[in-house]
Design goal:
Strand content: 5-15%
Number of helices: 6
Oligomer: single chain
Shape: globular
Structural class: mainly alpha
């Protein structure tokens, strides 16, 4: 099936730049750290606050069953805690713990340091363009699937 969208070349360029930067940031991780799935879960809780496992899985575009082990390991390690839901006590709500915040900050520190140094080589205008692009990419990441 051919896609007739005039912005397809721009999409490819944005994808390429995003993928390359993501790979570079992954290479700047110090030590073993947390898995990417664990980082994603903790990051969602940091940005959006407490949520049910189903809500978190949907926000991360995954099935809740595929994150069951991740949730259990993060809870076992004290990085998140489950509490019964206020409306439905049978449903749990995931909360980021102080240790979870610390682990997330520790894992991001090396990458943030590298990126801060790299950003120093850019002009203020270029840095502002990247800040705007980051906000837009966050919005795009939350866009519905093409098949939805």
């Amino acid at each position: 099936m051919e896609i007739d969208q005039p912005w397809l070349p721009e999409a490819a360029e944005i994808r390429q730049g995003t993928v390359r930067l993501a790979r570079r940031l992954r290479s700047e991780r110090v030590g073993e750290g947390l898995s990417l799935n664990k980082l994603s879960v903790l990051g969602h809780l940091l940005r959006h606050g407490p949520m049910s496992p189903g809500e978190l899985a949907a926000a991360d575009h995954q099935q809740p069953q595929s994150l069951t082990r991740v949730f259990a390991e993060l809870e076992r390690d004290g990085l998140l805690r489950r509490v019964p839901g206020e409306r439905d006590r049978r449903q749990s709500v995931l909360h980021l713990t102080a240790d979870g915040r610390t682990a997330l900050a520790r894992d991001m520190a090396g990458r943030d340091a590298w990126l801060a140094e790299a950003l120093g080589a850019l002009s203020e205008t270029e840095r502002e363009v990247l800040r705007l692009a980051a906000r837009l990419m966050d919005r795009l990441a939350d866009a519905p699937n093409a098949s939805s």
